[in-house]
Amino acid sequence: MTNIFNLEEAPSVEIFGSKDRFPVRRIYCVGRNYAAHAIEMGKNPDRDPPFFFTKPADSIVANNETVPYPMRTNNFHHEIEMVIAIGKEGADIALTNSEDHIYGYAVGNDLTRRDLQLAAREQGRPWDTGKAFDFSAPISAIRPAKSNGHIRKGKIEIKVNGDVRQTADITDLIWSVPEIVAELSTLFRLYPGDLIYTGTPAGVGPVERGDVMEGYVEGLGTLVNKVE
Ligand code: MN
How far is ligand 1, taken at its centre, from the CA of residue 29, in Å? Predict the structure, then answer.
């Protein structure tokens, strides 16, 4: 038997300093993981257990590629985030082992149709239309932990047209990287190819056609995408 049509190959992300690529299986995202952003979204900044949502693997956008302004929104927001790339399978991963499951890290932008997300939130509906649309997950090249180390601190920032919109430090994460991996793995068995967007600091805001977003995480370089 053969399939009646062919799907595209798995989407993949560039690996820094290599010709090899990282195929993407799933994209998980953490909600409200910086206290100041929880407050700006009208929510409690306490250390409640993290919550997760997903985006389709084919929503990734490479560094320097353009992002089309999405349909059905008048409030399209940037969210700078550090991304974890999973390299080893596991469920119920112990906190002490969780870094062993990480292949590397990248700079990400959890693009959001804020009007649709907030309308869904207010009505107790799923966030998919606000979060999981096409071209909603820009990501830079992945830097392997083996050669580049684990990212436990350092500046995270995004500029729009050269103006700083969000700035914080990775140490401001409410749930640290090892904690995110351990907690997520109690809900889903993680596999190589999974990406985890770790949450955004305060300062989210709208972008318009023609705007250039330049994300940065110390140790991971920049992620530049123009909205068109
Ligand atoms: Mn986010």
Answer: 6
84 Cα to the center of ligand 1, angstroms: 13
Cα 20 to middle of ligand 1, angstroms: 28
| Residue 78 bridge partners (DSSP) | 205
Structurally, at CATH architecture level, domain 12-226 sits in Alpha-Beta Complex (3.90)
Q: What is the pLDDT along the chain (228 residues), one digit of tens a residue?
A: 899 999 989 999 999 999 999 999 999 999 999 999 989 999 988 888 899 999 999 999 999 999 999 999 999 999 999 999 999 999 999 999 999 999 999 999 999 999 999 999 999 999 999 999 999 999 999 999 999 999 999 999 999 999 999 999 999 999 999 999 999 999 999 999 999 999 999 999 999 999 999 999 999 999 999 999
CA 93, chain centre distance (Å): 21
- Compute the distance from residue 32 Cα to the ligand 1 centre, in Å: 7
What CA–CA distance (Å, rounded) separates 166 from 156? Answer: 8
Where in the chain are the domains? 12-226
The Cα–Cα gap between 111 and 78 comes to 5
Among 218, 51, 226, which Cα is nearest to 131's?
51
C-alpha 40 to ligand 1 mean position (Å)? 13
Distance 26 CA to ligand 1 centre (A): 16
Rounded to the nearest whole angstrom, what is the distance from the C-alpha of residue 204 to the centroid of ligand 1? 9
